[in-house]
Each structure stands twice: as structure tokens, then as C-alpha cells.
Amino acid sequence: MTDFPSAANRRETKPPQARGLYVEPGAIVASATAAAQQGSPHVTEPVAYDAVLLSGFGGPEGQDDVLPFLRNVTRGRGIPDERLEDVAQHYRAFGGVSPINAQNRELREALRVGLAAAGIDLPVYWGNRNWAPYLDDVLAEAAQDGVRRVIAIPTSAYSSYSSCRQYREDWADALEAAGLQEVLQIDKVRQFFSHPGFVEPFVEGVRDGIAAAQRAGHRRDAIEVLFTTHSIPSADAALSGGGAFGDVAGGAYEAQHLAVAEHIIAAAAPGTSWQLVYQSRSGSPATPWLEPDINDAIVSLTDRSAVLVVPIGFVSDHMEVLWDLDREARETAEAAGMWFARAATPGVQPAFVDALVDLVRERLLGRPVGARANVTGIGPWVDVCRPGCCAKAGSAPRPAIAGIVT
Known about the structure:
Helix content: 25-40%
Order of helices and strands: EHHHEHEHEHEHHEHEHHEH
Number of helices: 12
């Protein structure tokens, strides 16, 4: 199966944006299986999928890849290379290699093993949104292998433009670029923030982190748990989940993270002080993004001696974990004289891999909503995204699959 082509054969640009969608007559969901075409929020009809598509963000594999990769990430935003180079320095400090690709290779293999152990005979393809192996190349390979029905897993657990809708847009781009709009049908698993297999590694991380802080001499009431996730523009956050949480400033994105954090604290460290914070913001300082920033939050903790950072917004230890947390947030804490620890992300922990297998199985079986694994008061989330769900604020909607066409 496709992995990274040689540098000489690797293209530097992602597929062009799709101009349209293929929708079966009478259907309201583009390029979907028959079970999902009518747009039911939860698909409870069994579907005989031919393959699993693990979809990653992508990342550079060497110094020469860094700027082309960042141009793909920021396509259409008109950001000059001089500004991109500021972000490029994070990658260059690690030899120009993002850890995310190796992590997804490992996750793909773990998922293959997990599916086989569960008696599910499905190949696992891996494609990236912003770097090789690109989604259109991978889908073309799958089609050549005889695949027609795909269940896709984005490596992001929550609802927002960047963590859900952009994946759906890029699948649409890839189908059109590969000429497969009328050949392949792609459904997606639900956003899995509330699946116990995603949450349990963080529960264990909080238990271990609190115990380590106490062994280091810090009382429980002197420890602050910071649940962190990627900040997004406030206007985008308000549109996440299709406005389902209009009473929460950060929309479904914030509500989902709060629900996960509340469950983790209740399970691992009841009574411990905690808050939800954000990291890795970019763009114009004049544009409001979700706050507080993790570094500002750490500086404000004048009555705490220890901080435990829990990256609930991330599935693996990629660049924004290694740089923004392990380097910058740690330096902020140490400068403030605070003990610092960071809980691990799910990565390829068995509970998380089993969760992904379970998400595939529930669609293969058409599992009823009430029988689906869920540990928060929000969820299980929908299988088919609703009209306008996670739209990009201020932008015209782009073609996107796995949701009701609007």
C-alpha cells in the first residue's frame, strides 16, 4: 500500500479544491453509501465496507519539505513564506521531520492488527490532507484494488471546521482529483471524543500525574490540572456542531472538551482544581480565538505549586504537543517556579486502538445509538454531519462529503 514516495517522485502540492459533488438521484449526502445517503443522523443499517481509510493531517519528512508542507496547510490564505518560516523553525528544530507521520504509520499497523484480532477482514489505507501520501493517490490505489465502500477515520476527535469539516472537504477534493466521485463511496465514523477508549488513556494519565506530583511533595490542593486543546477562531467555534450548543461561547467544540474534562476529573481525581485552556493559536492578533492560552493560564496560577497538562485535544504526540507543551509550556511553568508534567496522548495505546476498531464495527453492524460506547453527557455524536455543521466563518461553503449537502 502507498507510503511515502521517493523525494524525486514526491509532489509538493495537495489536490486542488473540488468544484462540485456527486450525489445519487434522490440522495442528500454526496458520495455516501446507500445506508447514509438519506442523511439520518445515526446510521443503524449494516454496511459491508471494503476498506478503512485512516486520514491524517500530514507533516514534512525533511528540511526541504517544510515550506511546501506549510504552503499546503495555509493554502488560500495568502501567507508569505517569510511568515511561514516562523512556524517552520519548530519543524527545523526537529530536523524538518514531523513526528506525526511515523505515529500514523504505527497507528495504521496497530489498527490492522486490532481489526484482524476482532475478526474484521478489512484493509487499512492511510492518506494525508497536507503531505504525502496524499488522499487522492491513496483513494486511486484503493479503487485499483477493487475497493468501492470506505469507512473513514479522521485523526481528530472533536467537532470544528479544522478537526472535522476540513477532512470532509479534503475527501471531496481527493475524490474529484482522482476522478472517483461516482466510483467510491465514503462514510465517516462519528466524532469519537466521548468513546471510552479515547478518554481512558487520559484518565490514567491524570491518575499517574497527580500521584507523581504528590510524590514530589505537592499537596492535592496545590495542583492544577490544565486540559488543553488547539485554539480555533471564536467565530468558527460558534459554528461547530451546527449551532447545537448556542449557549456555549465555544459551541460544540468547547462543550465537547468540557464534557471530556469533567468525566476525566470525576474518574481520576475528584475535587482537584482544573480548567480548560487552549494552545497553538495562529493568524492575526486582531481575530478573536478561544482563550485562555495555556501559558497565560500557567502564569496566573500564583497559588499553585504544580501543574499537570493533559492534551485532550490531540490523539498523538505530534509537533504542537512536543513544541508548544513540552518546550514552551514547560519553560513557562519552570520560570514561574512550578513543578510540571504532561500526560501522554492516546497514540497506539490498546484502549484507543480498540476504540477505533469498535467505531468501525458499529457501522459494519449498524449498532443502535443506545448501544454505542459513550462516557459523557454529550453523545454518541452523529454519523452524518448536519447542514452547515462546522462551517468556516466568513467563507463560502466548499464541497464536502459525509454530511448533508447544503
